[in-house]
Design a protein that fits this description.
69 residues
Length: 69
């Protein structure tokens, strides 16, 4: 099951939820990313991404991990 987080206003109203799109990519990236040469290749293959959706299900934005070089 993918993790999720909620974004709330100062008065406590929830206005968005952030969810992992591909939880498996995050796991593989974390495990294989620690291996010396395999980690370099994994940075280009496995890119975890997250979406933020409003209460009505509208996608507000998407965050994707990209290689640094």
């Amino acid at each position: 099951m993918a993790k999720q987080a909620t974004l709330t206003e100062a008065n406590g109203n929830q206005y968005a939820t952030i969810r992992e799109v591909k939880p498996f990519a995050k796991v593989v990236d974390a495990l294989l990313g620690e291996l010396p040469f395999v980690g370099l290749v994994c940075n280009y293959i496995f890119n975890p991404s997250y979406t933020a959706t409003s209460e009505d299900g509208t996608e507000l934005f998407r965050l994707t991990k990209v290689p640094s070089f």
